[in-house]
Specification:
156 residues; alpha/beta; Beta Polymerase, domain 2; 5-stranded mixed sheet; two-stranded parallel ribbon; globular
């Protein structure tokens, strides 16, 4: 049986649906007016995002960005539903020794550029991305300027 489609889900409905459908894979960390904050498992991100897009009617990946936590990286997705103005902030933890995560550019076309920028600045690799290459820095660069380990010239 196919999942129901919610054009204008409430914050509570989103929280309940994600918790029920992705038990053990998605954790709702908190909610606020028109906001859902959640953590997702790396291996389930594509499936979770596909459900959020197709069944909860979140039309846009407003941003996809990286965060260097020194001992691991995070990918943070801000997903928007235009009918309700609700935004989901979905965070995925990546171990420092495995900076691969499945691309969601196929789900949200605009995610293409966000993933490329995150790759360029943090070195996070979006598997299955249609054109994962640097946007502004030369392809020969072997560093990622937004990593905390990156030292500016002249820094000790």
């Amino acid at each position: 049986m196919a999942d129901e489609i919610y054009q204008a889900p409430s914050v509570q409905e989103i929280s309940d649906l994600l918790t029920d459908k992705f038990s053990g894979k998605v954790e709702i960390t908190r909610t606020a007016e028109r906001r859902v904050y959640a953590k997702a498992e790396k291996d389930s991100i594509y499936e979770v995002c596909r459900y959020i897009h197709d069944n909860l009617t979140f039309e846009q990946a407003t941003s996809i960005m990286g965060n260097d936590m020194k001992d691991h990286m995070e990918v943070i997705y801000h997903l928007s539903n235009y009918f309700t103005g609700v935004m989901i902030e979905l965070t995925v933890k990546l171990p420092a020794d495995d900076l691969h995560i499945r691309s969601v550019a196929e789900i949200w076309g605009g995610g293409d550029w966000h993933e490329r920028e995150t790759y360029e600045l943090f070195g996070i690799i979006f598997d299955g991305h249609p054109k994962l290459k640097r946007l502004l820095t030369p392809d020969t660069y072997e560093f990622y300027p937004f990593r905390k380990s990156y030292k500016l010239r002249g820094q000790e």
